[in-house]
Each structure stands twice: as C-alpha cells, then as structure tokens.
Design brief:
The radius of gyration is 30 Å and the shape is elongated. Helix 7 packs antiparallel against helix 8. Strand 1 and strand 2 form a beta hairpin. The protein is mainly α. The protein has a two-stranded antiparallel sheet with strand order 1-2. The protein has a domain of 116 residues. It is built from 8 helices and 2 strands, in the order H-E-E-H-H-H-H-H-H-H. It starts with a helix and ends in a 6-residue tail after the last helix.
Length: 200
C-alpha cells in the first residue's frame, strides 16, 4: 500500500518542483524576470550598475565624488605607501654589513607585504574577496616591479656596451669608469624609487 502512494503522490511532487525550479530564475518566474529585465533596460545606468555588482562583483563609481578629494586621497596614499620600499634603506643606513647587504631583499619583502595590505583594503572596500584582491594587487605590483628592474638592468647593459664602443683611448677609460659607476648608482636608485609606483 505504501509503494503506490509513494509513486503516485510523492515522486510527482519532486519531479514537479524540479521542473518548476528550472522554469524559475533565482526564485522568480520566467515571465516576471522578463518584465524586470525589460523595465531595467529602459534605464541603462541602473542596468549597468546592476550588472557590475551582480555579475562582475564591482561596486559602481559614485558620480558625486570630488576630483579634489580623489586627488588628495591618491597623493596621501602615494606619500604613505610609496615610502615603504625606501624604509629598508633608511633603517639599514647606519648598519655596516660585512658580507652581504640584505637591504634590497628587505625592501622587496616590505613592498610585497604592503601590496598585500593594499589589496586586502581594496577587497574590503569593494566588498569582494579580500584574499583574491590582495593576491592580484600583489601580483600586479610584483610584475610591474620586475619589469622596471629588468628594463633598468637592460639599459645599464646597453649603456655599458655603447659607451665602451665609442671611448677607446686610455684617458677616456678613466672618465668612463667614473661615469659607469655613477650611472650604475643612479640606476640602482631609480629601481628603488620605481618600486613605489607599483601601487597604481
């Protein structure tokens, strides 16, 4: 007696509810969803903002924001976070390292940690995944820093090669060594300063 009741009353209910769920869109009937979509399509700004939030998980930009306020926030963030890579050089300046100078490595570690912090703050403010945002900001910063370091290294090699081709005499060799020493120091400093611009 139990089996006929189950097959004729309970199973059709499960099949019907599954079929009904397929016809519904997030708990909304298909016809109602089409009405909502047609209504939202009349207002493109609302529709785009809704798509940004629901599909891309991006918060829309507020049109009322002041350009001066945005400029001040950007300037202050560059001043605060842009100085982090230089802190390693300021802190380790009075320390004498006899074998190996870890200042550049410390600067890299501080920069990566700062990028992770900025990415986490960005994720929190945009109400997206904090860890995912932190990882992508850090990855973008590392790629930008590596690219600037590579360009600086290649330019140093190019300058060394071209200068050595043009200056042959012995009197010019001494001045060339002085120039190269200064250029390498300038490029090394430029690499350090370029690290602060990876936060863009």
């Amino acid at each position: 007696m139990f089996y006929p009741f189950f097959f004729f009353n309970v199973l059709p209910f499960f099949f019907f509810s599954a079929a009904q769920k397929k016809k519904n869109l997030i708990g909304i009937l298909r016809a109602d969803a089409m009405d909502i979509l047609q209504t939202m399509a009349k207002y493109p700004d609302v529709f785009i903002d809704h798509m940004l939030v629901e599909e891309l998980d991006i918060q829309p930009v507020d049109d009322d924001e002041s350009a001066i306020k945005n400029g001040l926030v950007t300037m202050s963030s560059f001043m605060v976070f842009g100085v982090v890579p230089l802190l390693a050089y300021v802190i380790t300046l009075p320390i004498n390292f006899p074998d190996y100078n870890p200042t550049f490595l410390i600067s890299i570690i501080l920069t990566v940690l700062t990028l992770l912090l900025l990415g986490g703050i960005k994720g929190k403010m945009t109400e997206s995944s904090i860890w995912k945002s932190a990882f992508f900001v850090m990855l973008n910063g590392v790629i930008a820093a590596a690219a600037s370091y590579l360009i600086g290294f290649l330019l140093a090699q190019l300058i060394n090669t071209q200068i050595s081709l043009f200056f042959i005499t012995s009197t010019h060799v001494l001045s060339l060594l002085s120039i190269l020493k200064n250029l390498k120091r300038m490029l090394r400093n430029a690499r350090v300063f370029s690290l602060k611009y990876v936060y863009c």
